[in-house]
Amino acid sequence: DAKTTQPPSMDCAEGRAANLPCNHSTISGNEYVYWYRQIHSQGPQYIIHGLKNNETNEMASLIITEDRKSSTLILPHATLRDTAVYYCIVGDPNRDDKIIFGKGTRLHILP
Amino acid sequence: DTGVSQDPRHKITKRGQNVTFRCDPISEHNRLYWYRQTLGQGPEFLTYFQNEAQLEKSRLLSDRFSAERPKGSFSTLEIQRTEQGDSAMYLCASPGELDGYTFGSGTRLTVV
To answer: Which of its termini does chain A have fewer beta carbons within 10 Å around, N or C?
Structure first.
Protein backbone atom coordinates (compact mmCIF):
# COMPACT_ATOMS: atom_id res chain seq x y z
CA ASP A 1 0.00 0.00 0.00
CA ALA A 2 1.04 3.57 -0.62
CA LYS A 3 2.52 5.31 2.41
CA THR A 4 1.06 8.67 1.46
CA THR A 5 -2.34 10.34 1.63
CA GLN A 6 -3.45 13.02 -0.83
CA PRO A 7 -6.75 14.76 -1.57
CA PRO A 8 -8.39 13.20 -4.61
CA SER A 9 -8.83 16.47 -6.48
CA MET A 10 -8.11 20.18 -6.37
CA ASP A 11 -8.86 23.24 -8.45
CA CYS A 12 -6.58 26.21 -9.01
CA ALA A 13 -7.03 29.36 -11.07
CA GLU A 14 -4.60 29.87 -13.93
CA GLY A 15 -1.72 32.12 -12.90
CA ARG A 16 -2.13 31.43 -9.20
CA ALA A 17 0.05 29.20 -7.06
CA ALA A 18 -1.13 25.62 -6.76
CA ASN A 19 -0.39 24.07 -3.38
CA LEU A 20 -0.75 20.29 -3.28
CA PRO A 21 -0.59 18.67 0.17
CA CYS A 22 0.61 15.21 1.07
CA ASN A 23 0.66 13.33 4.37
CA HIS A 24 3.34 10.73 5.00
CA SER A 25 3.23 10.24 8.75
CA THR A 26 5.03 6.86 8.68
CA ILE A 27 8.02 8.07 6.65
CA SER A 28 11.30 6.59 7.87
CA GLY A 29 14.58 8.41 8.34
CA ASN A 30 16.17 7.29 5.07
CA GLU A 31 13.14 7.89 2.90
CA TYR A 32 12.84 10.83 0.58
CA VAL A 33 9.65 12.48 -0.60
CA TYR A 34 9.18 12.35 -4.37
CA TRP A 35 6.59 14.03 -6.53
CA TYR A 36 5.55 12.90 -9.98
CA ARG A 37 2.82 14.06 -12.28
CA GLN A 38 0.95 12.32 -15.06
CA ILE A 39 -0.64 14.17 -17.90
CA HIS A 40 -3.40 12.33 -19.70
CA SER A 41 -2.20 9.39 -21.82
CA GLN A 42 1.45 9.83 -20.85
CA GLY A 43 3.71 8.09 -18.36
CA PRO A 44 4.42 9.69 -14.98
CA GLN A 45 6.99 12.48 -15.03
CA TYR A 46 9.40 13.17 -12.18
CA ILE A 47 9.03 16.67 -10.69
CA ILE A 48 11.11 17.04 -7.55
CA HIS A 49 12.27 15.23 -4.43
CA GLY A 50 13.63 16.07 -1.00
CA LEU A 51 14.75 14.57 2.29
CA LYS A 52 14.17 17.26 4.88
CA ASN A 53 15.18 20.58 3.41
CA ASN A 54 12.92 22.57 1.15
CA GLU A 55 13.78 22.17 -2.50
CA THR A 56 13.17 24.23 -5.61
CA ASN A 57 13.76 23.56 -9.28
CA GLU A 58 12.51 24.96 -12.54
CA MET A 59 9.24 23.10 -12.24
CA ALA A 60 8.18 23.44 -8.61
CA SER A 61 9.03 23.92 -4.96
CA LEU A 62 8.79 21.28 -2.26
CA ILE A 63 8.14 22.25 1.33
CA ILE A 64 8.67 19.49 3.91
CA THR A 65 7.55 20.01 7.50
CA GLU A 66 10.14 19.81 10.23
CA ASP A 67 8.77 16.50 11.51
CA ARG A 68 8.74 15.23 7.90
CA LYS A 69 5.23 13.89 8.31
CA SER A 70 3.80 16.02 5.55
CA SER A 71 4.85 18.07 2.55
CA THR A 72 3.46 20.52 0.00
CA LEU A 73 4.25 20.75 -3.67
CA ILE A 74 3.98 24.29 -4.96
CA LEU A 75 3.52 25.19 -8.61
CA PRO A 76 4.17 28.95 -8.39
CA HIS A 77 2.25 30.14 -11.45
CA ALA A 78 -0.07 27.41 -12.62
CA THR A 79 -0.88 27.15 -16.31
CA LEU A 80 -3.44 25.04 -18.14
CA ARG A 81 -0.64 22.63 -19.04
CA ASP A 82 -0.23 21.82 -15.34
CA THR A 83 -3.58 20.02 -15.37
CA ALA A 84 -2.58 16.48 -14.39
CA VAL A 85 -2.64 13.86 -11.65
CA TYR A 86 0.06 14.55 -9.07
CA TYR A 87 1.53 11.67 -7.06
CA CYS A 88 3.39 12.03 -3.77
CA ILE A 89 5.61 9.04 -2.99
CA VAL A 90 8.15 8.16 -0.31
CA GLY A 91 11.13 5.94 -0.96
CA ASP A 92 14.76 5.23 -0.15
CA PRO A 93 16.99 5.83 -3.20
CA ASN A 94 19.73 3.68 -1.68
CA ARG A 95 17.53 0.61 -1.84
CA ASP A 96 16.09 -1.09 -4.89
CA ASP A 97 12.66 0.07 -3.86
CA LYS A 98 9.90 -0.03 -6.35
CA ILE A 99 7.67 3.03 -6.42
CA ILE A 100 4.29 2.42 -4.82
CA PHE A 101 1.75 4.82 -6.25
CA GLY A 102 -1.44 5.92 -4.55
CA LYS A 103 -4.31 7.49 -6.46
CA GLY A 104 -2.75 10.95 -6.41
CA THR A 105 -4.42 14.35 -6.64
CA ARG A 106 -6.16 15.35 -9.84
CA LEU A 107 -5.33 19.03 -10.30
CA HIS A 108 -7.62 21.09 -12.51
CA ILE A 109 -6.31 24.45 -13.62
CA LEU A 110 -9.22 26.75 -14.33
CA PRO A 111 -8.93 29.43 -17.04
CA ASP B 1 10.98 11.73 -25.67
CA THR B 2 11.67 10.63 -22.10
CA GLY B 3 14.66 8.43 -22.93
CA VAL B 4 12.65 5.28 -22.18
CA SER B 5 11.04 3.92 -25.34
CA GLN B 6 8.04 1.64 -25.43
CA ASP B 7 6.62 -0.13 -28.43
CA PRO B 8 3.90 -0.26 -29.58
CA ARG B 9 2.08 2.79 -28.22
CA HIS B 10 -1.29 1.18 -28.80
CA LYS B 11 -2.36 -2.42 -29.25
CA ILE B 12 -5.84 -3.77 -29.90
CA THR B 13 -6.16 -7.51 -29.70
CA LYS B 14 -8.88 -10.10 -29.57
CA ARG B 15 -9.50 -12.00 -26.38
CA GLY B 16 -7.40 -15.13 -26.27
CA GLN B 17 -4.57 -13.80 -28.42
CA ASN B 18 -1.01 -13.35 -27.20
CA VAL B 19 0.63 -9.92 -27.14
CA THR B 20 4.19 -8.76 -26.53
CA PHE B 21 5.39 -5.30 -25.56
CA ARG B 22 8.92 -3.97 -25.66
CA CYS B 23 10.74 -1.47 -23.47
CA ASP B 24 14.12 0.10 -24.21
CA PRO B 25 15.36 1.77 -21.01
CA ILE B 26 17.98 4.45 -20.53
CA SER B 27 21.09 2.55 -21.49
CA GLU B 28 23.27 3.08 -18.45
CA HIS B 29 20.65 1.99 -15.92
CA ASN B 30 20.72 -1.61 -14.75
CA ARG B 31 17.26 -1.61 -13.19
CA LEU B 32 14.02 -1.79 -15.14
CA TYR B 33 10.46 -1.82 -13.83
CA TRP B 34 7.11 -2.71 -15.37
CA TYR B 35 3.85 -1.21 -14.15
CA ARG B 36 0.22 -1.54 -15.15
CA GLN B 37 -2.31 1.28 -14.93
CA THR B 38 -6.07 1.03 -15.27
CA LEU B 39 -8.42 3.97 -15.64
CA GLY B 40 -8.59 6.21 -12.60
CA GLN B 41 -5.90 4.33 -10.70
CA GLY B 42 -2.24 4.97 -10.05
CA PRO B 43 0.30 2.70 -11.71
CA GLU B 44 0.63 -0.73 -10.07
CA PHE B 45 3.95 -2.52 -9.82
CA LEU B 46 4.27 -5.72 -11.88
CA THR B 47 7.92 -6.76 -11.94
CA TYR B 48 11.50 -5.56 -11.70
CA PHE B 49 14.83 -6.51 -13.28
CA GLN B 50 18.38 -5.89 -12.16
CA ASN B 51 20.36 -6.42 -15.35
CA GLU B 52 18.96 -9.67 -16.79
CA ALA B 53 17.74 -11.07 -13.48
CA GLN B 54 14.06 -10.77 -12.63
CA LEU B 55 14.22 -10.02 -8.92
CA GLU B 56 10.63 -9.42 -7.94
CA LYS B 57 7.19 -10.19 -9.31
CA SER B 58 3.90 -8.83 -8.05
CA ARG B 59 1.04 -11.18 -7.35
CA LEU B 60 -0.71 -9.20 -10.11
CA LEU B 61 1.58 -10.99 -12.54
CA SER B 62 -0.41 -14.15 -13.20
CA ASP B 63 1.07 -17.16 -14.97
CA ARG B 64 -0.23 -15.76 -18.26
CA PHE B 65 2.31 -12.94 -17.93
CA SER B 66 6.00 -13.35 -18.57
CA ALA B 67 8.76 -10.79 -18.71
CA GLU B 68 12.30 -11.09 -19.92
CA ARG B 69 15.34 -8.90 -20.15
CA PRO B 70 17.93 -10.72 -22.23
CA LYS B 71 21.45 -9.35 -21.91
CA GLY B 72 20.24 -6.76 -19.44
CA SER B 73 19.23 -4.30 -22.12
CA PHE B 74 15.70 -4.08 -23.53
CA SER B 75 12.83 -5.93 -21.88
CA THR B 76 9.71 -7.63 -23.17
CA LEU B 77 6.42 -8.26 -21.44
CA GLU B 78 4.23 -11.00 -22.92
CA ILE B 79 0.62 -11.70 -22.07
CA GLN B 80 -0.74 -15.03 -23.20
CA ARG B 81 -4.42 -15.78 -23.77
CA THR B 82 -5.41 -12.17 -23.17
CA GLU B 83 -8.56 -11.37 -21.23
CA GLN B 84 -10.64 -8.22 -21.21
CA GLY B 85 -9.36 -7.50 -17.71
CA ASP B 86 -5.86 -7.16 -19.14
CA SER B 87 -6.89 -3.94 -20.88
CA ALA B 88 -4.68 -1.25 -19.35
CA MET B 89 -1.70 0.99 -19.91
CA TYR B 90 1.57 -0.89 -19.45
CA LEU B 91 4.42 1.34 -18.33
CA CYS B 92 8.13 0.76 -18.20
CA ALA B 93 10.46 2.74 -15.95
CA SER B 94 14.19 3.17 -15.58
CA PRO B 95 15.52 4.81 -12.40
CA GLY B 96 17.97 7.68 -12.31
CA GLU B 97 20.65 8.15 -9.69
CA LEU B 98 18.87 10.63 -7.46
CA ASP B 99 16.32 12.23 -9.73
CA GLY B 100 13.61 9.68 -9.51
CA TYR B 101 12.41 7.30 -12.17
CA THR B 102 11.99 7.97 -15.89
CA PHE B 103 8.88 6.41 -17.35
CA GLY B 104 8.13 5.60 -20.94
CA SER B 105 4.94 6.79 -22.59
CA GLY B 106 3.42 3.36 -22.14
CA THR B 107 1.64 0.81 -24.28
CA ARG B 108 -2.13 1.02 -24.15
CA LEU B 109 -3.64 -2.43 -24.55
CA THR B 110 -7.28 -2.91 -25.47
CA VAL B 111 -8.63 -6.46 -25.44
CA VAL B 112 -11.88 -6.83 -27.38
So the answer is: N
